[in-house]
Amino acid sequence: MANIKPFRGLRYNPELFCDLSEVVTLPYDRIHEAEQAAYYEVSPYSFVRIIQGKSTPADNDKNNVYTRARAYMETWLAENVLIRDPVPVLYVLEQTFTTPDNDVKYVRRGLTAALNLTYFDEGEVLPHERTLQGPKEDRLNLTRATETSWGHIFMLYPDEEAEINALLQPFLDSHMPAIVSDRVIEPDVEQAFWVVNDPDVVAAVVEAMKGKGPLIIADGHHRYETALGYRDEMREKADAAPDAAFNYVLATFVSMSDPGLVVLPTHRLIHSYTRMDSQALLGALEPYFTVVSLPDRDALAAALAEAAPDRPRFGFYDGTYTLLTLKSLAVMADLLPDRDPSFRKLDVTVLHELIIEHVMGLSKESVSRHENLTYLRDPTPGYAAVDSGEANFLFLLNPTQMAHIRDCTAAGERMPQKSTDFYPKIVGGLVALPLSGVMGD
């Protein structure tokens, strides 16, 4: 059951920003030092100043990235840079894009609303990946300082009949988007954003979403667990109304059947590894994998795409091209007898548990510290790193299938980190959910 509500969103004033391309950003966990610096240069009102502000050596308990985020919020509200919608509404984000590896055009639609928070063991919201403590502490500090849910939870919901999109379509057809941005946040992604303020449409969508569940978190596991922590913290301070805003989190919902729902693979580049060279590794893998040499990168990509659902296969590059196809999943049952079969047949599970840990001898702890491992969405820098001698070899993966994600989540399994890369990301800065007061205020 998806218990959602419309809300009075906090967003950039459309009279001052008819196109938000200069102020919106990627999600905070995709903003590294280079992106942060670029966003700072583009606009003094960039959303990055709130969600991923610059720290200074002089930071202390009273002046830091979190207190400055609140100061930006309060100043921008006073200057009318940020406004709140006058009545509770829903929002729609439509993203038109091509993926980095082909020229196929996709359109993905997301519904943005306030989602009532529930614990994972209640079965209404299910995670699919593990989380780390550090990012949760960071996001909790920001939430405490600003009393606002800034980052979207990218949530998947079942809707094979496309009921929600059908309810929204007449409104979208008859209204211009609030903003259309053709300036790239991620390459070749156009953003269109609607404010759905028709009360009949809002009521119909809210009611229809009650039958959509369970929900699966695609992106935003850390943000969701942070929101739960903040909610519980606030409940301890005083008796709270059922509709207290801190009982909710900002979420954007995409149907699992949306034709624009794309998952990209995340490849693994191995560096600073000295236990065995590539030829010794291939020899050690032969008991488990069919090892086939291929002539070039295109042939490797084509062979990867032909993988059978129960026969994980990987590309391997060490200056030459090799295809590795698992002979049998029986070895995974021997390695992981206590894990669900849906987890054991994941490509990322086979790669990490069988190849990286069992055969190569790298520990889970070293992998989590990225001591010998770099994650890559685009494999091209990985090929270059191997060619230059900066890395040992590159493992190429297929994207995780949506059916595998559903199976793992239903079985209560958490997938390894970097198992999925939903593309594109939900833009930061379109709208935020204030957490003080009650819903509707």
Any overview of this molecule?
There is one protein chain. The protein is of the alpha+beta class. The chain is 33% helix and 22% strand. Helix 3 runs parallel beside helix 4 (133-146), helix 4 (133-146) packs across helix 7 (221-237) and helix 5 packs antiparallel against helix 6. Strand 16 and strand 17 form a beta hairpin. It has helices at 33-42, 48-51, 65-78, 133-146, 163-174, 199-209, 221-237, 278-285, 297-305, 330-335, 341-344, 347-359, 364-368, 380-388, 402-410; strands at 4-5, 10-12, 82-84, 90-98, 105-116, 125-126, 148-149, 153-157, 179-181, 189-196, 215-219, 248-255, 262-264, 267-270, 289-294, 313-317, 321-326, 373-376, 393-396, 421-423, 433-434. Strands 1, 4, 5, 6, 8, 9, 10, 11 and 12 form a nine-stranded mixed β-sheet that branches. A six-stranded antiparallel β-sheet has the order 15-17-16-19-14-18, with helices on both faces. The protein has two domains: 4-262 and 423-434, no CATH class; 266-398, Conserved hypothetical protein from pyrococcus furiosus pfu- 392566-001, domain 2, CATH 3.30.1760.
